[in-house]
TrEMBL record:
CDD domains: PBP2_OpuAC_like (cd13639)
Domain of life: Bacteria
Lineage: Bacteria, Bacillati, Bacillota, Bacilli, Bacillales
Main location per the UniProt record: membrane
InterPro entries named among the record's database cross-references: ABC_Gly_betaine_transp_sub-bd (IPR007210)
Organism: Pontibacillus chungwhensis
Protein name per the record: Glycine betaine ABC transporter substrate-binding protein
SUPFAM superfamilies: Periplasmic binding protein-like II
């Protein structure tokens, strides 16, 4: 899916930033096709539109997303994993993009290689000896160029794995995962938590003794430079935002079960008015 950028540039910098004429201030949110990113981006679109803002969601991949924030073609993006996963992007763009590192909205992430719990493999170090279990050494991955796939390439080198990666997308990976589990077949995937699959399937991360995938991290948000001046009220909302595993999991499940992401996000917003009012300072 392509990132749609307005030829005339972003109009969100117009106005005085005091919350007046909100309907003339379009906020453009960039997102990846990852389950939690789709869920929270649709959630914030609904919340901000309820507050009088106009919001557009622009689907893209990681590299173009950072480039669009740097060039002011996007206003914000809601998912940056630090200090490890997105470190390379952070180092490349920290002078040109505002990273809101002091306001994580989710604490304690996990990512790595995962298998169904019935698979008798527990560590990445055991993979070469069990290559025949996984389609002769196939790892189902996500978007090419994503941080997780970059770390998986590092894992192949660090552990000397005789495996290949099949990059596709988050939804394609979870579809293949579900099909394999229904057949009770072994499958090896790149995965991260929080993710709705952990509520639906019995899965386990493989031990990573070399710590290639790093320790637990936090998720923060980022914005184009000048966004906080143009939208101080929205900045305060998002800085107050925080979700735990149960809250995010329930949102992701509603989005997954709905015909459209916006439909599931709207249902969750309707059922969590009290929590959202806390974020909005009401």
């Amino acid at each position: 899916m392509l990132l749609v950028l307005a030829a005339c540039g972003n109009d969100s910098s117009s106005g005085d930033g005091d919350g007046s004429d909100k309907e003339d201030k379009t906020i453009e949110i960039g997102l990846n096709n990852w389950a939690e990113n789709v869920a929270v981006s649709n959630m914030w679109k609904i919340i901000l539109e309820d507050e009088g803002y106009s919001v557009k969601l622009n689907m893209t991949e990681k590299g173009p997303l950072y480039q669009a924030l740097e060039s002011d073609d996007l206003d914000l993006a809601l998912e940056v994993w630090l200090p490890h996963t997105d470190e390379a992007f952070y180092e490349d763009y920290k002078e040109d993009v505002d990273f809101h590192k002091d306001q994580p909205w989710f604490n304690g992430t996990t990512l790595g290689l995962a298998v169904p719990s019935y698979v008798d493999v527990n560590s990445i170090e055991e993979l070469n000896d069990n290559k025949d279990l996984f389609e002769d050494g196939k790892i189902y991955g996500i978007d090419p160029g994503s941080s997780l796939m970059g770390l998986t390439d590092e894992a192949l080198d660090e552990y000397g794995l005789d495996y290949t990666t099949a990059s596709s997308s988050g939804p394609a990976m979870t579809t293949q995962l579900g099909e394999s589990i229904r057949k009770e077949e072994p499958i090896l995937v790149t995965l991260w938590k929080p993710h709705w699959v952990f509520a639906e399937y019995e899965l386990k991360f493989l031990e990573d003794p070399k710590n290639v995938y790093g320790d637990e991290e936090n998720i923060i948000w980022m914005s184009r430079q000048g966004f906080t001046d143009d939208f101080p009220e929205v900045t305060e909302y998002i800085n107050t935002w925080e979700m735990d595993d149960q809250q995010l999991g329930s949102l992701m499940n509603m989005v997954k079960e709905a015909d459209e992401p916006a439909e599931g996000a709207q249902k969750w917003v309707d059922e969590n008015e009290e929590l959202i009012n806390e974020w909005l300072g009401k």
